Amino acid sequence: MPSAYEASSLTALLIQKCTTTISLKKARQLHALMATSATLSAQSPYAHNNLLSMYGRCGSLGDSQLTFDKIPQRNIVSFNALLAAYSRTPSHANLPFKLLTQMEIEDLRPNGSTFTSLLQGSSSLEDQIIGSELHAQVVKSGFLNDVCVQTSVLGMYSNCGDQESAEKVFEDIMDKDVVAWNSMIFGNLKNERIKNGLHVFGSMVRNGVIPTQYTYSMVLNACSKLGNRDCGQSIHARMIIFNTIADLPLQNALLDMYCSCDDVQTAFTIFCRIGNPDLVSWNSMIAGYSKKGDGEMAIDMFVRLLRMSFAEPDEHTFAAVISATGGLAASDYGKPLHAQVMKAGFQSSVYIGSTLVSMYFKNDETDSAQKVFSLIPEKDVVLWTDMITAHSRMGDGETAVRFFHEMRQEGHKIDSFVLSGVLSACADLATLKQGEMIHSLSLRTGCDVEMSVCGSLVDMYSKNGNLQAAQSIFSQVEYPDLKCWNSMLGGYSHHGRAEEGLKLFDKILSRNIRPDHVTFVSLLAACSHCGLVEQGKLLWSQMKEMGIMPGLKHYSCMVSLLSRAGLLEAAEEIIIESPFREDYLELWRTLLSSCISNKNLSIGVHAAEQVLSLDAEDSATHTLLSNLYAAAGRWDAVAEIRRKIRGLVLEKDPGLSWIEVMNHIQVFSSGDQSHSHPRIDEAQYELHRLLRNIVRSETDEFDITVFET
Question: Which residues lie below 8 Å from residue 674, measured CB to CB, with a gap of 6+?
Answer without folding.
Answer: none
